[in-house]
Each structure stands twice: as structure tokens, then as C-alpha cells.
Amino acid sequence: MSDRDAGQTTGRVPADGRSRGGRRLSFRLGGIGPLRRLSARIDAVRLRIAAGFEREMEAGRGFLWLPVCLGVGIVVYFALPREPSLPALAGLTVLLGAMAWRARRRVVLVRALIALAAIAAGMTVIKLRTDQAAAPVLARETTATVTGWVAGVDAASAGGVRLILRVVRIERLPPEATPGLVRVTVRSKGQGIAVGDGLTLLARLSPPSGPVIPGGYDFARAAFYDGIGAIGFAYGAPKPAAI
Fold first, then answer.
1. Bridging pattern class, strands 198-206 and 228-240
2. Are 184 and 166 in contact (CB under 8 A)?
């Protein structure tokens, strides 16, 4: 078999880069130019941020970036697809802190490690706060008699008062499924209610609702961290209860 036949059979390109017709093959790498420009822009932004950070450090304001990094850690925590482990987050914070101590003579590296340790610390703090706030939340909308102590009183926007009740019991709910706190709006004869009063009332309760629009204020999250497991309104006036 001749070299020409072999080239036709295998489809190989000759070593000199010429085609079978004798013309040199042309490879157009049109994507390299945009990638290089993008890489150059990223490098420019990175250098600009690094220069600004360096000026902050030289001015003695580096410590002020720690709360920022803690806040970044909180944002990262809420963006995670699943709940992280508290020991893992605490271990990561300690590890990054130890690495920063070991690298204390390498200025750039130690600053990066301190920032990462602060981010991990922010995640650890909010995870600890989440575990501490964990409490039963009402599973579905219901009408029931609620008995409890008044833990807070606020004026409602539509008139009446808004009560925070520390629940003793909710009709038809077992203790393990009973929210610790409920927020109930009372529109009739609620002006004489004070913190510490024991009350019983018939209320329409529902779980705290999520954001009205995507990315909006998350009422359910705020209620969770306030320990409130149900919200609603009272039918009629509450009655004093001997608890």
C-alpha cells in the first residue's frame, strides 16, 4: 500500500500540516481572542480590588472588613442548597484561623486566610443561631382555642392590638407540635391587655408566610428567628385565663 493510499484509508493529516491537495491546513481559533480579553478584564478588576484593599490596610482600616466578611458568611449560609453541619463549620473556622497563624509572615496569604476564616465564622454563628431558634411551626391553617401568657403587645395597623402569646396549649395540638409563640391580632376590646396577662381566645391560625415576590422580605424566616410558629387573628375578645 502506498503512502497516498494509507493517507486516504486512515484520514490522517500529514506531519507537515498540508492537505492531500498540497495546501497548508488553516486552524482558526476565533475563541481565543475574546477569552484573552475577558481574562485581562478579570485581572484588571482583581488588581484594582487588591490595590483598594491594600490602601485600606495601610490606613489601619483592615479590621473594619471583618464584619463585612461575617456578613458574607451569613449570605453564603442562606444560599447553600442544604443545611450544613455545625461541627463542620466550626472546624473549618478553626482550621482557617490556624492556617492564618502559621502563614502570619506571608502578608497576602495571611490576609486572605483571615478573610476566609471570618466568612466561615459568619456561617458558624448563623448556624448556631438557627439551631437555637428551632421550634415547632404550625403545619397547616386551623381554627382553635389558644391559651397562653401575653409576651408582647403592639398596636395593629388596622386597629386593635397585636399580641405575642407564649403558648401553654392550643386545642387539638399535641405538645410536640405546639408552637412556643404565636402572633395574634385582636380587634375588639384589646386595649386593656398587658404583658404578663393570662388569656384564652378563639383564633384563626396559619403558618408564617414566605416572600410575597421572589427575593422579597421573607416573613417566615423572620418569624422563625423570632421563635414565632403561627400567626393569625382572634374571633371576638380574649378572656382572662387562670394559668
1. antiparallel
2. no
pLDDT per residue over 138-179, tens digit each? 999 999 999 999 999 988 777 789 999 999 999 999 999 999
- Kindly state whether residue 220 falls inside one of the protein's structural domains: yes
Q: Are residues 94 and 169 in the same domain?
A: no
CATH of the domain at 154: 2.40.50
Which residue type, as a one-letter code, is found at position 96?
Answer: L
Q: How far is CA 1 from the centre of its chain?
A: 69
Residue 37 lies in a domain: no
Question: Both 165 and 124 in a single domain?
Answer: no
- Claim to verify: residue 149 and residue 107 sit in the same structural domain: no
| Average pLDDT score, the chain | 84
| Phi (first) and psi of residue 226, to 5 degrees | -85, -5
pTM (2 d.p.)? 0.66
- Within a domain: 90: yes
The span from the CA of 161 to the CA of 184, in Å, is 8
Q: Are 234 and 202 in contact (CB under 8 A)?
A: yes
- In angstroms, rounded to a whole number, what is the distance separating the alpha carbons of residues 200 and 150? 10
